[in-house]
């Protein structure tokens, strides 16, 4: 019983973040309650697209942001454990697409935004 409790405590995610750097790539990072950190880096040349997708269950719709990487069978899910609300995802999505693809949506709050680095942290 104690072993199960310890395992559960060690596997709880405290924070997830995405760091986008123009012409370099994206780092996706997960920090657990015990301080352990797992980072994945995706080179800009391998990023095909960044999208917001939806998962539908019996009672709800969950939105999540994914990075489509060339040569991989699976997409990289950003904020995989914490699943922020759609309005937060949209802000991160727009900022990330701007930095990686130099793309701005009409009526976006990124007009005049010229920072080549975009960082977003989501905490539990």
TrEMBL record:
Instruction: Tell me yes or no: is Transferase among this UniProt entry's keywords.
Output: yes
Stored Pfam families = PIG-H
A single GO cellular-component term on record: glycosylphosphatidylinositol-N-acetylglucosaminyltransferase (GPI-GnT) complex
| Pathways involved | Glycolipid biosynthesis; glycosylphosphatidylinositol-anchor biosynthesis
Task: Please indicate if the UniProt record lists Nucleotide-binding as a keyword.
Answer: no
- State the signal peptide span: 1-15
Keyword terms: Signal, Transferase
Q: Which GO terms describe its biological process?
A: GPI anchor biosynthetic process
Q: Which GO terms describe its molecular function?
A: transferase activity
- Which segments constitute the Phosphatidylinositol N-acetylglucosaminyltransferase subunit H conserved domain? 17-80
- Give the family per the record: Belongs to the PIGH family.
User: What is the designated name of this protein?
Assistant: GPI-GlcNAc transferase complex, PIG-H component-domain-containing protein
Q: Which organism is it from?
A: Glomus cerebriforme
């Amino acid at each position: 019983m104690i072993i199960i409790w310890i395992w559960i405590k060690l596997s709880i995610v405290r924070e997830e973040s995405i760091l986008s750097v123009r012409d370099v790539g994206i780092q996706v990072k997960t920090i657990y309650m015990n301080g352990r950190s797992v980072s994945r880096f995706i080179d800009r040349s391998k990023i095909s697209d960044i999208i917001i997708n939806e998962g539908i269950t019996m009672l709800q719709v969950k939105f999540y942001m994914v990075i489509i990487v060339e040569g991989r069978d699976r997409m990289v899910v950003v904020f995989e454990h914490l699943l922020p609300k759609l309005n937060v995802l949209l802000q991160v999505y727009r900022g990330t697409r701007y930095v990686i693809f130099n793309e701005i949506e009409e009526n976006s709050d990124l007009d005049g935004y010229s920072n080549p680095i975009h960082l977003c942290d989501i905490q539990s």
